[in-house]
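To: structure desk
From: M.T.
Subject: fold request, one chain
Message: Could you run this one when you get a chance? Sequence is below, nothing fancy, just the single chain.
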Amino acid sequence: MRDTRIRSRLRGLFQNTGILESWIRNLKIGRCIIMSKHRINRISEEVKRVVSDIIRNDLNDPRISTMCSVVSAEVTPDLRYAKVYVSVLGNNEEKQSTMKGLSSAAGFIRRELGKNIELRYSPEVIFELDNSIEHGAYINKLIKEVNEKDGGESL
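Reply: Done. Structure tokens follow.
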């Protein structure tokens, strides 16, 4: 009885928008309503910080390079998955071995993440290789070469 009264009031507010229908459908299926992007961004930054600390301090895998840094992290709105972007300075062999080491330590990292961040779910950590730092260094090298050819004039 109470549900029908609430639905009828909400229908009056959200006529012809489709918002109410999708909201009711999600409630019937048992899905959670997506939380605000601001909170997800804060959680993503905290995941980035904690995973970086875990990789730097707690992992003893020799496959993981010392020149490994966490660039960013993206957490899904339901907090089930966290995609962590990692940059590795070195050759392709070091990158591949670091990614294998990180993927094998994903369970440990997930457990430690759950201990350090109090969330309802500990997100499953998925590592992705990010080449943005190397690309930036390459662009800086090209700019430096162009400046040297032009006689040292700066922009």
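Reply (cont.): Residues 55 and 109 are 8 Å apart (CA to CA). Let me know if you need anything else for the meeting.
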